[in-house]
Amino acid sequence: MAQRAQMEQHPRPTLLSDFILGGQDGLVNVLGILLGLVAANAPAHFILIAGLAALAAESLAMAAVAYTSTESRRKLYHSEIAREEREMREVPELEREEVRVILRDWGYEGAEVDDMLARIEKKPKAWLNLMMAFELNLSPIGTDAPRKSAAVVGGSTLLGHLIPLLPFFFLLNDPHLAAYVAVVLSAITLFLIGWYEAKLTIGSLWKSGLRMLVIGLGSGFAGFLIGVAIPFL
Fold it and tell me: What is the Cα–Cα distance from 221 to 63, expressed in whole angstroms?
């Protein structure tokens, strides 16, 4: 129990991936809805209502999905801890061989493998952490991680929705102009998200920004095509 409690205090950060997931998803989805309705010449008030409904429904849905998926991963991690602890007690030689495989993959050979194995065996905590990280490729997830993930994903989804929706509050009498402004704002935002991702990780800032822009606008443009096609159905 102490082992698990200590691991829960050091969750791996997922803020960036959660932010990108919610922001991009919220922006692209509502942009597609708005462009589709404008292309279909829907009434202006209907466009605004649909955008706001999508904002409320998807922000809550994305937050709920983020919470449940992170909680499931947390439960999986602890179930695997219990299984590894049981195997270390009941089939220690099998677990030792798995450690040897990992050490050989790291470049250790011959007597080095046995020497390292002996050192690891003396530290059950290190042994368990080694198996979790390098055999199962699992990382600890804190008890508060599901709530944090839900807050970040839900909040970024809400912000993503607001960006293409804002022009319709001020230009409701001219939905086509509002749509043009929404596309420009969305393009700038998508580029900045990609740029920010590359800045925090690796890669070309411009390439990452343009890739995010193309993917996002391409997906949103699908809604526009549906709106254009509706009169012909």
Answer: 25
Any idea how long the chain is?
Answer: 233
Give me 21's structure tokens.
């997931």
User: What is the rounded CA–CA span in Å between residue 13 and residue 16?
Assistant: 8
Question: Residue 233: its pLDDT value, please?
Answer: 61
- In 3D space, the residue among 22, 9, 12 whose CA is nearest the CA of residue 154 turns out to be 22
SS3 14: coil
pLDDT of residue 1: 40
Helices 175-200 and 145-170 meet at what angle, rounded to 10?
150
The pLDDT of residue 223 is: 80
pLDDT of 219 reads 78
Please give the distance of CA 106 from its chain centroid, rounded to a whole number: 30
**Contact at 8 Å (CB) between 212 and 197?**
yes
Q: 55: exposed, middle or buried (C-beta count within 10 Å: 0-12, 13-18, 19+)?
A: buried
Alpha helices for the chain (secondary structure H): 2-8, 15-39, 44-90, 92-105, 111-121, 124-130, 145-170, 175-200, 205-229
SS3 at position 231: helix
What is the residue type of 8? E
- Grouping H, G, I as helix, E, B as strand and the rest as coil, residue 103 is helix
Q: Residues of the chain whose pLDDT is less than 70?
A: 1-14, 200-201, 203, 231-233
